[in-house]
Amino acid sequence: MNVRRLGLVIVSVALTSISVAAHHSFAMFDMEKNVEYKGFITEWKWQNPHVHFNVLVKSGAGVEPATVGTWDVEGGSINIMSRQGWTRASYKIGDPIRLVGHPMKDGSKGISLFYAIRPDGSRLYHDIARPKDDVKK
Amino acid sequence: MAFFHSLQNSAFTDWFLGSDSIWTYPTVLTLHTIGMAILVGASFVINLRILQVAGAIPLQRLQPLYRFVWIGFAVNLLSGLVLFVTEAADRVIDPVFYVKLLSIVVALSFGIVVKRSAIGRADIQHVAPAGSRVLAAASLALWIVAIVSGRLMAYLKH
Amino acid sequence: MTEFAAWVESTSLSKTLFGMSWLWPLCESLHFIGLCMLIGAAGLLDLRLMGMFRGLPIRHVKALMPWGIAGFIINATTGALFLTMQPHLYLSSGVWWSKVAFIVIAGANALFFETRLALPALAMDPDADTSPGMKLVGAFSLFSWFAVLYCGRMLPYLGTGN
User: Cβ–Cβ of C29/B54 closer than 8 Å?
Assistant: First the structure.
């Protein structure tokens, strides 16, 4: 009876976790890749548990073809992002945006936000993580 | 369906999810976790004892634990309703949400049957009937399904 | 801490673990299951020490402890995995260190119970009220474990680093 229950547990946990991998988990992003995207905000959701915004990258001169399209950018919680300087008014629909993030491993148009780049070149990080090269700054 | 969209797009939802206060979304979410710990914690103790793998508490003495099952359930029903409103349209078509609700309802029902068939009986002290033990094992598995499907919901938003 | 976290995240162990997309969600589910086991078992003992369930011999309640310990081990293991995969979320966070502190406090409290109060608790008349010392230890333990839960759940909101 005990072994059967344990088996049921393992199977149900494993099955649901494996199916999670097929969906939108932050572990589905390629965290090794930092890609820069330049586009316009087409949707802006300043809400918990995750801030989400859509960025439309149009093709053109100087635009990386791999970055073209409409991307769903996922950030952290309002609370965490606020601490890094983000506000509800940081961006709105139609605003241009430059950001660096980690794209989805499977090629679908999702990005895990690393930081946005302000017009003056300074960075708006989404949480405490910093690039390895400027960790010592 | 329009009703659920009106909930999800309501002023309440905008305020609740858009607030940077820890007393709104973060607190309700944490209450939901606390309720789970109480509800499933109490259920685990009851069911493990019924299965004879957790000591020799006389079966009748498990009865007061049901108070905690219902307290935990009440906290999660209320916090769950608030959370549901903010995602009503997305969740009402989410099969994982229904798996979670169904496993909770069935696990609670089994708990009530176990209470009647094994715990509320003066003639049984130490060994629960075989039928109760089957329900207890099934309840344990169902609570785990409820927890995992609840976690899975966080990954399947929009 | 930031540099140490960056170093851990650059190791092949960290990258391999975090690269397995299903591992993080699996660890989360197990972490929730573990906490229910721990709070269920420890919670019953704590409530008994606080005077509830009068008439129930404490030795019967203590027989649940292996399940509580199993829950703790599941959570310590999944916790170590989270720490290995994404240390930057935790090592610079005051909330996470508070969680660790409450775990240590709960453990110290349990040790105090085992060494000083366990024998009297096991020997006492089950129908008698528990002593003030037992009530305090039980209440403190219950509070500590819920404080651990609170800190853990609030991490993505109270701060994964300031």
Answer: no
Delimit the domains of chain C by residue range. 2-158
Domain count, chain B: 1
Task: Note whether C60 contacts B57, CB cutoff 8 Å.
Answer: yes
A6 located within any domain: no
Residue among A42, A98, A40, A37 nearest A65 (CA)? A37
Query: Distance (Å) from the C-alpha of residue A55 to the closest C-alpha of chain C?
Result: 24
For residues B137 and B145, what is the distance between their CA atoms, to the nearest angstrom?
Answer: 13
Is B32 within 8 Å of B80 (Cβ atoms)? Answer: yes
- Residue A77 within any structural domain of the chain: yes
Mutate to test the interface with B, among A26, A43, A48, A78 (most CBs of B within 10 A): A48
Name the residue of chain B whose CA is nearest to C159's CA.
B22
Question: Are A108 and A70 in contact, with CB atoms under 8 Å apart?
Answer: no
Those of residues 10-39 in C touching chain B at CB distance below 8 A are: 25, 28-29, 32-33, 35-39
pLDDT mean by block of 10 residues, chain B; 158 residues: 95 96 96 98 97 89 96 98 97 96 97 93 87 96 97 80
